[in-house]
Design goal:
The protein is α+β, with helices and mostly antiparallel strands. The protein folds into two domains: 8-128 and 288-311, 3-Layer(aba) Sandwich (Aminopeptidase); 137-266, Aminopeptidase (3-Layer(aba) Sandwich), CATH 3.40.630.30. The protein has 13 helices and 13 strands. The chain has helices at residues 15-20, 29-35, 91-98, 112-115, 141-147, 150-162, 178-190, 200-204, 244-247, 249-263, 276-281, 298-306, 308-311, and strands at 8-10, 42-47, 50-60, 70-76, 87-89, 104-110, 124-135, 167-171, 209-215, 218-228, 231-239, 268-270, 285-295. Strand 9 and strand 10 form a beta hairpin. The chain is globular and about 70 Å long.
Length: 324
């Protein structure tokens, strides 16, 4: 007889939940509630050994390969495509408890040290998209420019020249309207690895900074980010693809992030996942992230472990000699 799942689902907002997940701001009650829609239910689960955020969706099991196999998963991750894990606590206890339930389970964006707590063959562990991390050791943006090797500095100056007429304004999050939201949807449609579509409320209720790029009073791009204790993270962005090349929008969005990080004297800027080559040309380094797949069925878990190499993202080695 199968043992009963010991995790307890709690309604949010919940004080106990927020206290237990305080080390991971992306699991706070307000973030989860801002991402919930009628079509997409997000659950908060408390257990003596862990806390986890989960939601159900259909995913291609071979996202990073050529095979297409859509299956229903319970995803254990924050309710937004950010590169951090969706739990706090003992990962092995979490896996063993979730195995008491039926279905397929997927944990996203674990760091290498997180995977060390997973015992062999109890789950399939594979690499997912790496995070692009910029280690800031510069006094200001001009100091950064002077330390770039000439080909990379020339590329930055070319982008800045193209974007010279763009005006950047920080808005109140409540001012995030559907015209700006459409810029996010445009990027989502172009994404190679889309997970979910966040509602406009996620941006309006967020505590993150939102800087909007305007051309003649028309929004053409935005960046959403937060800073905390010397750390800065690029959360989401959006842009109008019809004028992307005219203003070199994507490059200027990344350069704006660098400027903001340096102005705020942060030590680390996490530029998130995807577009690794472009971000590494600005001086980022890659940090590996992992996903973990398992099932309540022992046989299916064994199959997942067997096919783990086909599930993971094989990152090409990227090395650029960016700085002098």
């Amino acid at each position: 007889m199968k043992k009963r799942f010991e995790g307890k689902e709690v309604s949010l907002p919940n004080r106990e939940w927020d206290e237990k997940v305080s080390a991971n701001g992306w699991l706070s009650s307000d973030v989860i509630l801002s991402a919930i829609t009628d079509e997409r239910k997000v659950k908060a689960v408390i257990h003596p050994s862990y806390c986890a955020c989960e939601y159900r969706m259909k995913l291609n099991l071979f996202t990073f390969g050529k095979i297409k196999l859509q299956l229903p998963f319970t995803v254990i991750a924050p309710p937004a495509s950010v590169d951090c894990k969706g739990y706090v606590g003992d990962v092995q206890a979490l896996i063993e408890d979730y195995k008491k339930k039926k279905g397929l389970f997927l944990m996203l964006n674990l760091k290498k040290e997180d995977t060390l707590g997973i015992s062999g063959n109890c789950a399939a562990v594979g690499k997912t998209l790496s995070s692009c991390v910029f280690l800031n050791c510069f006094k200001n943006f001009e100091d950064y420019l002077q330390n770039l090797r000439s080909p990379y500095r020339r590329r930055v100056r070319k982008a800045l020249e193209k974007g010279r007429n763009i005006k950047v304004i920080r808005i109140n999050n409540r001012e995030f309207d559907y015209e700006i939201y459409n810029l996010y949807l445009q990027v989502l449609k172009k994404s190679r690895f889309p997970l979910e579509t966040l509602p406009i409320t996620f941006f309006q209720l967020s505590n993150c900074n939102i800087d909007v790029f305007y051309n003649e009073n028309k929004p053409v791009a935005f960046v959403m980010y937060y800073t905390n204790n010397g750390f800065m993270s690029f959360v989401f962005g959006g842009m109008d693809y019809s004028v992307r090349d005219d203003f070199d929008l994507y490059y200027n969005m990344l350069l704006h992030m660098l400027k903001m990080g340096m102005e705020n004297k942060v030590n680390i800027i996490d530029f998130g996942q995807t577009a690794e080559s472009t971000k590494c040309r600005l001086g980022c380094e890659l940090e590996e992230r992992y996903m973990v797949a398992f099932s309540g069925n022992k046989f299916i878990t064994k199959i997942l472990c067997l096919f783990a190499p086909l599930l993971e993202y094989n990152q090409e080695t990227i090395r650029y000699n960016v700085f002098k």
